[in-house]
Structures are given as structure tokens and as C-alpha cells.
Amino acid sequence: MSGREQAERLWSNIVELGPRRLAALGLIGLVVFLAVGLGAYYLSRPAQETLYTGLSREDVARIGGVLKDAGIRFDVSADGAAVLVPYGNTAQARMLLAEKGLPQSSKSGYELFNDLGSLGMTSFMQEMTRVRALEGEIARTIQGMKGVRAARVHIVLPERGSFRRDQQPPSASVVVRTEPADDRSGAQAIRQLVASAIPGMKPDRVTVIGADG
Predict the structure, then answer these.
(1) Rounded CA gap, 181 and 211, in Å?
(2) For residue 85, what are the domain limits?
(3) Which stretches does the entry tag as region Disordered (predicted)?
């Protein structure tokens, strides 16, 4: 039997199933596809992510106490210098710890460069470290402002060396927890601060969000 005859027989068998059975088979196939896709996503997703690294033993103990009181599960790395939390809990945990003035020993600003060597570092790693350091330094400055209890800064910079005409300008988002909680008087000052710290950024590209919504 030729390949063409086999294909014709297969097609005739499929047609004989009728529209209802074909629809049911299609629905089953879709469900299986979605189940496999979701399963692969959750299996490939890390169970935990690093909250902070480069911590002293004292900070690890303090952070553990705060997270335990807040009901956030955590783990400590084998070398005792990093704290890990379940995937998706990082932002909540960092905001909570920032309110307590923790960590005190974490390398979150320009100290990140102290332990880095140029050997083996790619340009991407250097750029990511630079952005993280800048975010940490700006967050520190914002947390020093009156009425701000905690702050997190996220910066998005355009790719260096890109000649695309539709290149997006730099942008940033700032999450702050203020005292009182509904105080928004410093939002414009924060926008100006962030914009002035990042070349090419305009204040209207900075979004300031309250941690309580």
C-alpha cells in the first residue's frame, strides 16, 4: 500500500468519527497540551530564590526572626551568608525587612563591585551588576527621605550599542511604604531624584507606587 493510499484511508477514518467525536478529541488534545505546558513551567521554575547574599551571621539571625514572625518560610545557604525564600515572596520579604532596617550587612549598593573581578565576567553580568548597584543606591537615598519607611527601585535601561530607531527610553518604578500610609506628597520629589540619577531619563518615565496600593 502506497503512502498516498494510507493517507487517504487515515483521512476517511477521521471523517467517519463525526463532528462530535472530532470536537471531543480536539478538546482532549488541548487539555493535554495545556497540562503538559503548565507542568513544565512549574517544574522548571525554581522552588526558592535568593533574598539577600553577603550577609553577616547577625543579620541572618535577625532576618530569620522577622520572616518567621511574618509567616514567610525561608532557608539559609550552606555557607550561612545568604537567605532564600519561596519563589514569588521576594518583593514582600524585602519590603518587610526594609521597614526594620535590614539587612545591615548586605551588599546592595556600589559595594557589589568590591567583591567582583573583571576575570570571567561578561558584559551582560557587568551591566546587571551596575543596574543592581544603582537601584540599591537610589533606594537608600529614598529611604532617607522624611516619611518614607521602605523603598524598592526597579530600573529598565535600553540596550547599550543598540541602533534601533524604536529604542525605548529608560524607565523606572519605585515602590514605597510611607508613614502615614496614604502620604503621596513626596512622589514628585522621588521622580525628580530618580530621573536625575539616570542619564536620559525623564521624570514622567518614573512610576511611584505605594506598597499598600
Answers:
(1) 8
(2) 48-100
(3) 163-183
